[in-house]
Amino acid sequence: MDPEAFLDLANQVIKLKMYPYFDVAHSLLCALAVREDLGSGAQAFSRKHPLACWLSTMLVIFAGGMVANGLLGEPVLAPLKNTPQLLIGTVTWYFVFYTPFDVGYKVAKFLPVKITASAMKEIYRAKKVYDGVSHAAKLYPNAYIIMVIVGTLKGNGAGFTKLFERLVRGAWTPTAMETMQPSFYTKASLVASVIFVLDKKTDLISAPHALVYFGIVIFFVYFKLSSILLGIHDPFVPFENLFCALFMGGIWDSLAKLLGKGQPKEETKDTKKTN
């Protein structure tokens, strides 16, 4: 592709309006995630506890903004003032849980629909990460770590509110902490936040901002589609394992086990002799 045409395409992507189509895709997949998290009892739960079902779905849809606002000292419920987006979230929630003969859920699960919505949601995620970094940069111009944290939370806030979101539905799962076992979306949002901070605050990245943004969008979309079509769920795992082995004590623990393998036997022999 011609470089100028590629740059023009990148500029078009960065100017995309999220409302209403990308908001619909985001809300649809969030409602679908809540339903799948409920498992086989999702239909019965939605009939018996519609308020809890709606609240948990809205919490997933608006999680990034709520958590980021809470950390930045802004009103936690401020994202809910966006009435059109709230209406979209409510309509998609009803579509997934309450349509006759479960048509809405089946349509959302239909592979072409799911692929299209997933690609749109990753474009939406890139926009949220960038907005989070930009907003934090205005409040704390020199606090790079705050920019990265807010960008990460904006990108995958639902992962960090999963514990509370399940609690709203009456399920207590204290091990469902994103900090204990980060998902790929949290890691990807973290990497994207770091790149956006480097692009915004340093001279380390010389490429035009539109290309940097477009590259992150491609990164998000590519690995999301890979997880759906190819089953590649977390490409960071091999690098994490290598890093942990080299710098987090993995090699030294293995070496200590090898060197100390015969030591307990010698100790037991000595104790037998003394007895």
TrEMBL record:
The chain crosses the membrane at residues 51-72, 84-101, 210-230. It is found in: Endomembrane system. Keywords: Ion channel, Ion transport, Membrane, Potassium, Potassium channel, Potassium transport, Transmembrane, Transmembrane helix, Transport. GO terms for molecular function: identical protein binding; potassium channel activity. It holds the Pfam family TRIC. This is Trimeric intracellular cation channel type B. It is a multi-pass membrane protein. It comes from the Eukaryota. The lineage of its organism: Eukaryota, Metazoa, Ecdysozoa, Arthropoda, Hexapoda. GO terms for cellular component: endomembrane system; membrane. The keyword Zinc does not apply. Belongs to the TMEM38 family. Its main location: membrane. PANTHER family: GH25683P (PTHR12454:SF11), TRIMERIC INTRACELLULAR CATION CHANNEL (PTHR12454). It comes from Papilio machaon (Old World swallowtail butterfly).
